[in-house]
Amino acid sequence: MANTAELTEQTETNPRQEQEVVFDEGFNPISMVTIVKKNGRYVAVASTDLKINDIAEKAGFVLTPYRTNEPDKRAKLIASIMPVYPCSCEQCKIMGPNIVIPSGNILFIQFSKKPNLHVEFDSNNALIYARAITQIKAGDELFVDYTHLYPQDEVAQENMFMEPPINANL
Q: Which CA distances in Å does 96 have to 67, 68, 89, 91?
């Protein structure tokens, strides 16, 4: 075992050095998505065949301080390109839900009223999932209907989460 003088010397030369290695279970992203350029824009396509309920993308997310109905023009711009955190609390009914910044390839999944993916949130772990709702072949473009992210009542809100959030306003 190292004495105090040796530990002090190690700390001074490398202050971030741990005395023992610590391993925690980490976040394992899943991506069955490839980004390609199509008609001058970048879009998400399936990198493999997906069956119904398969995860196409699993990524982390953070909430912005902006809400979709804020008069701030930046909020309107961000809300036009980012998904929103579904919520029907009294504050969100007035100011709109928080805007989400997802990691991964979710931003490249295009909007459609005939989607082949569905978005789900795991608020306890700050994860967002895009699951197949139809059979998808490798190379098919991926689409999601974001309109369900604006629920109008508590039941619709709770259906968005794998586990309903304890505090929807995080």
A: 5, 5, 9, 7
DSSP 38: E
The sign of the torsion formed by the CA atoms of 150, 153, 159, 164 equals positive
pLDDT at 165 over 80: no
Contact 120, 112 (CB under 8 A): no
Q: Which residues contact 30 (CB under 8 A, 6 or more apart)?
A: 55, 57, 58
Phi/psi for 117 (5° steps) reads -130, 155
Tell me which DSSP letter residue 98 carries: E
How far, in Å, CA of 139 to CA of 141, rounded? 6
Give CA–CA dist 28/12, Å, rounded: 34
Global pTM value: 0.69
- 3-class secondary-structure state, position 39: coil
Determine phi and psi for 105, rounding to 5 degrees. Answer: -100, 10
Average pLDDT for 63-81: 83
